[in-house]
Write a structure and sequence with these properties.
Shape: elongated
Oligomer: single chain
Distance between the termini: 61 Å
Largest sheet: 4 strands, antiparallel
Number of helices: 2
Number of domains: 2
Structural class: mainly beta
Strand content: 25-35%
Number of strands: 15
Helix content: under 10%
Length: 245
């Protein structure tokens, strides 16, 4: 039997006849698009309870009251609501997030250090610190898209993180002396990082290099209109590995 999740008549709550789950739907801030996605993803993840199984009560809370919460990943988005937005340097990167639906409103908590999930599973009291974060709703994914830990992930979808850096002469001199792109690639399903092959570790203004663990590429750049030797005078370093034996 397929689980059936649907909106209640009040338009602000939902229920699943497959497993017995129920909860509130995000309010006007995110609109019907988020509500429809929430119910659709529940249909995909739900496993109906058998005739002799007891449907567990919600274990997540906010301010001591039951709430709906789930662990997801999503790409961080910017916001104009907070001039000193703490996650602005993370915009465009995928993070572990906890989605919380409480009292008709949906919020998102950063969960890279498990603080978001720890909060909602320990009563949701203000005594447990958390960091709200803004996300791109179209990038929401279940926390683990690769459900079977006994089989290798096929690595079919990927996320690439690119940061382009302007290199200036000094903190007091804003003259741009070079550019560099930092690039990382992760599997979207299992979050495994990919390593760069054949690239030396270190930093160089003349050729691409990588981090010591080979997961981040640092590639020097120049505008198409710049001279070929633009940026070549910048300092760099190489990492040499000492052989064991």
């Amino acid at each position: 039997m397929q689980p059936i999740a649907y909106f209640a008549d009040d338009g602000r709550t939902w229920r699943c006849d497959g497993c017995g789950s129920y909860g509130s739907i995000g309010g006007a801030r995110y609109g019907h698009r988020l509500a429809a996605r929430h119910v659709a993803m529940h249909n995909e993840e739900c496993t109906p309870a058998g005739p002799n199984e007891e449907v567990p009560m919600p274990k997540t809370r906010w301010n001591g009251e039951p709430c709906q919460a789930r662990r997801i990943t999503a790409v961080v988005a910017d916001t104009s609501d907070f001039p000193q937005y703490w996650a602005r340097h993370l915009v465009g990167t995928r993070r572990n997030i906890v989605e919380v639906v409480y009292n008709g409103e949906t919020s998102y908590l950063d969960d890279e250090d498990d603080s978001g999930w720890h909060k909602v599973t320990n009563g949701g009291s203000p005594r447990w610190a958390h960091s709200n974060i803004v996300i791109d709703l179209d990038t929401i994914q279940p926390r683990s898209g690769h459900a079977d830990p006994d089989t290798p992930c096929p690595h079919e979808d990927f996320d690439a993180y690119v940061a382009v850096n302007r290199i200036t002469a000094s903190d007091s001199d804003p003259t741009v002396t070079g550019y560099a792109a930092d690039i990382k690639v992760n599997c979207r399903a299992c979050d495994e990082p990919f390593r760069w092959t054949g690239v030396p570790a270190g930093v160089s203004p003349a050729h691409p290099t990588c981090s010591v663990d080979e997961t981040e590429l640092c590639a020097p750049l120049r505008p198409a209109s710049a001279d070929p030797d633009f940026g070549l005078g910048l300092p760099g370093f190489a990492v040499r590995y000492r052989g064991q034996g």
